[in-house]
Amino acid sequence: MTLVLDNEFKVVDNLETIQYRVKTAADTWATTLTVPNVLRRARDKTFADGDKNLNVQEIVFHIWANQLAAVPKINDKITDADGLKYVVREVEVHCFYTRYRLTCIREQ
User: Fold this and answer.
1) Which of 66, 71, 75 is nearest to 104 (CA)?
2) The domain containing residue 19 runs over which residues?
């Protein structure tokens, strides 16, 4: 018996649609892609105990691998449904073999 999880997003709640921009060179971008069924999670990253100025909130986007034609990479950009922009800082390729796990920070 083979377990296939390619469409596991169909059983996940609170999915959203994002705009994904692939960085191709210094300050140049490929066409913006609309990506449906993205799962977002927030987490706080603490750099120093007691100093809240050194803490940052990271956003983790889970994008199913069958939703993108190319593998995401660092410095690509995401725009959420509210128009907030995020920069990809870390990419875990094929988390559970079905999705990309992108750790992002909000663009200033």
Assistant:
1) 75
2) 14-106
Q: Which amino acid is at 78?
A: I
Q: What is the CATH number of the domain that holds 34?
A: 2.40.10.370
In a domain, 37, yes or no: yes
- At 37-52, the pLDDT tens digits run 898 887 666 555 656 5
Total number of domains constituting the chain = 1
Residue 96, CA distances (Å) to 15, 37, 65, 71, 100 in order: 18, 16, 10, 15, 9
Give the pLDDT score at 3.
Answer: 47
- The tokens describing 13, both together, are 């709640």
What residue has token string 């034609």?
A: 69
pLDDT for 41 equals: 84
- Residue 94, token pair as written in the block: 């094929």
User: How far is the C-alpha of 33 from the C-alpha of 13, rounded, in Å?
Assistant: 22
Domain annotation covers residue 4: no
pLDDT digits (tens, 9 = 90+) for 85-100: 999 999 998 776 788 9
- Distance of alpha carbon 106 from alpha carbon 108, whole angstroms: 6
